[in-house]
Amino acid sequence: MKISDILEEKLVRTNLPGQSKEEVINAMVELVSQSSKVLDKDKVRSAIFEREKIMSTGVGNGFAIPHGKTDAVADTVAAFGVTDQPIQYQSLDEKPVRLIFLLVGKDNMVGPHIKLLSRISRLMNKEEFRTRLLETKTPHEVLEIFRQEEASYSEM
Known about the structure:
six-stranded mixed β-sheet, Mannitol-specific EII, Chain A, about 45% helix, about 160 residues, alpha/beta
Protein backbone atom coordinates (compact mmCIF):
# COMPACT_ATOMS: atom_id res chain seq x y z
CA MET A 1 0.00 0.00 0.00
CA LYS A 2 1.31 3.41 -0.96
CA ILE A 3 0.96 6.55 1.12
CA SER A 4 -0.44 8.35 -1.91
CA ASP A 5 -3.18 5.69 -2.07
CA ILE A 6 -4.54 6.55 1.37
CA LEU A 7 -3.82 10.29 1.53
CA GLU A 8 -6.60 12.44 0.06
CA GLU A 9 -6.29 16.08 -0.95
CA LYS A 10 -9.05 17.11 1.47
CA LEU A 11 -6.99 15.55 4.29
CA VAL A 12 -3.91 17.68 3.61
CA ARG A 13 -3.39 21.15 5.09
CA THR A 14 -0.46 23.40 4.25
CA ASN A 15 -1.19 26.00 6.93
CA LEU A 16 -1.98 23.80 9.91
CA PRO A 17 -3.01 25.89 12.93
CA GLY A 18 -1.66 25.40 16.42
CA GLN A 19 0.96 26.66 18.83
CA SER A 20 1.54 23.46 20.83
CA LYS A 21 1.86 19.73 20.31
CA GLU A 22 -1.66 19.18 21.68
CA GLU A 23 -3.16 21.88 19.44
CA VAL A 24 -1.59 20.50 16.25
CA ILE A 25 -2.58 16.93 17.10
CA ASN A 26 -6.15 18.11 17.71
CA ALA A 27 -6.06 20.02 14.39
CA MET A 28 -4.87 16.84 12.65
CA VAL A 29 -7.68 14.80 14.24
CA GLU A 30 -10.19 17.41 13.04
CA LEU A 31 -8.67 17.19 9.57
CA VAL A 32 -8.70 13.39 9.36
CA SER A 33 -12.26 13.27 10.69
CA GLN A 34 -13.39 14.72 7.35
CA SER A 35 -12.85 11.23 5.95
CA SER A 36 -15.85 8.92 5.72
CA LYS A 37 -13.52 6.20 7.07
CA VAL A 38 -13.58 7.84 10.51
CA LEU A 39 -16.49 6.43 12.47
CA ASP A 40 -15.83 8.12 15.83
CA LYS A 41 -13.62 11.22 16.00
CA ASP A 42 -13.35 11.16 19.81
CA LYS A 43 -12.14 7.56 19.83
CA VAL A 44 -9.56 8.43 17.16
CA ARG A 45 -8.37 11.35 19.27
CA SER A 46 -8.09 9.10 22.34
CA ALA A 47 -6.11 6.47 20.42
CA ILE A 48 -3.65 9.10 19.14
CA PHE A 49 -3.12 10.70 22.56
CA GLU A 50 -2.83 7.30 24.29
CA ARG A 51 -0.08 6.33 21.86
CA GLU A 52 1.62 9.70 22.41
CA LYS A 53 1.77 9.01 26.18
CA ILE A 54 3.94 5.94 25.53
CA MET A 55 6.60 7.90 23.64
CA SER A 56 6.66 11.06 21.57
CA THR A 57 5.96 10.54 17.89
CA GLY A 58 8.24 13.47 17.08
CA VAL A 59 10.84 11.36 15.30
CA GLY A 60 13.31 14.13 14.45
CA ASN A 61 14.30 16.28 11.50
CA GLY A 62 11.26 18.52 12.02
CA PHE A 63 8.83 15.65 11.50
CA ALA A 64 6.20 13.95 13.67
CA ILE A 65 4.03 10.95 12.94
CA PRO A 66 1.23 10.76 15.49
CA HIS A 67 -0.53 7.44 15.03
CA GLY A 68 -2.78 4.88 16.62
CA LYS A 69 -4.96 1.86 16.06
CA THR A 70 -8.66 1.78 16.90
CA ASP A 71 -11.99 0.27 15.94
CA ALA A 72 -13.20 3.85 15.30
CA VAL A 73 -12.11 3.72 11.64
CA ALA A 74 -13.53 1.62 8.82
CA ASP A 75 -10.10 1.38 7.14
CA THR A 76 -6.64 2.91 7.35
CA VAL A 77 -6.82 6.69 7.08
CA ALA A 78 -4.18 9.42 7.04
CA ALA A 79 -3.81 13.18 7.10
CA PHE A 80 -0.81 15.42 6.49
CA GLY A 81 -0.12 18.94 7.70
CA VAL A 82 2.56 21.59 7.46
CA THR A 83 2.55 24.14 10.28
CA ASP A 84 3.24 27.83 9.71
CA GLN A 85 5.60 27.96 12.68
CA PRO A 86 7.86 25.35 14.28
CA ILE A 87 6.08 23.55 17.15
CA GLN A 88 7.79 22.20 20.27
CA TYR A 89 6.88 18.51 20.16
CA GLN A 90 9.20 16.73 22.62
CA SER A 91 10.89 15.18 19.58
CA LEU A 92 13.61 12.58 19.94
CA ASP A 93 16.17 15.11 18.62
CA GLU A 94 14.62 17.86 20.81
CA LYS A 95 14.00 20.04 17.72
CA PRO A 96 10.61 21.54 16.80
CA VAL A 97 8.43 20.09 14.05
CA ARG A 98 6.59 21.53 11.06
CA LEU A 99 5.69 18.37 9.13
CA ILE A 100 3.02 16.14 10.68
CA PHE A 101 1.70 12.89 9.25
CA LEU A 102 -1.22 11.38 11.18
CA LEU A 103 -1.97 7.70 10.58
CA VAL A 104 -4.90 5.78 12.03
CA GLY A 105 -5.30 2.07 11.44
CA LYS A 106 -7.85 -0.54 12.40
CA ASP A 107 -7.15 -2.47 15.60
CA ASN A 108 -6.84 -5.77 13.76
CA MET A 109 -4.55 -4.55 10.93
CA VAL A 110 -1.20 -4.36 12.68
CA GLY A 111 0.95 -5.50 9.72
CA PRO A 112 -0.21 -2.90 7.18
CA HIS A 113 -0.05 -0.19 9.88
CA ILE A 114 3.59 -0.96 10.66
CA LYS A 115 4.50 -1.14 6.96
CA LEU A 116 2.96 2.30 6.35
CA LEU A 117 4.78 3.78 9.37
CA SER A 118 8.03 2.37 8.01
CA ARG A 119 7.39 3.74 4.51
CA ILE A 120 6.55 7.19 5.88
CA SER A 121 9.68 7.20 8.04
CA ARG A 122 11.84 6.18 5.08
CA LEU A 123 10.47 9.00 2.93
CA MET A 124 10.82 11.56 5.71
CA ASN A 125 14.46 10.65 6.29
CA LYS A 126 15.26 12.30 2.95
CA GLU A 127 16.16 15.94 3.52
CA GLU A 128 15.29 17.00 -0.04
CA PHE A 129 11.83 15.44 0.31
CA ARG A 130 11.16 17.28 3.60
CA THR A 131 12.40 20.56 2.10
CA ARG A 132 10.06 20.20 -0.88
CA LEU A 133 7.11 19.55 1.45
CA LEU A 134 7.94 22.64 3.53
CA GLU A 135 7.87 24.76 0.36
CA THR A 136 4.43 23.57 -0.81
CA LYS A 137 1.51 25.96 -1.01
CA THR A 138 -1.38 23.61 -1.80
CA PRO A 139 -2.61 20.14 -0.82
CA HIS A 140 -2.38 19.15 -4.48
CA GLU A 141 1.36 19.96 -4.48
CA VAL A 142 1.84 17.86 -1.34
CA LEU A 143 0.18 14.82 -2.95
CA GLU A 144 2.25 15.24 -6.12
CA ILE A 145 5.45 15.25 -4.09
CA PHE A 146 4.40 12.04 -2.31
CA ARG A 147 3.48 10.40 -5.64
CA GLN A 148 6.78 11.38 -7.27
CA GLU A 149 8.83 10.19 -4.33
CA GLU A 150 6.99 6.88 -4.08
CA ALA A 151 7.38 6.33 -7.83
CA SER A 152 11.14 6.74 -7.48
CA TYR A 153 11.16 4.15 -4.65
CA SER A 154 9.27 1.56 -6.67
CA GLU A 155 11.79 1.95 -9.51
CA MET A 156 14.68 1.06 -7.20
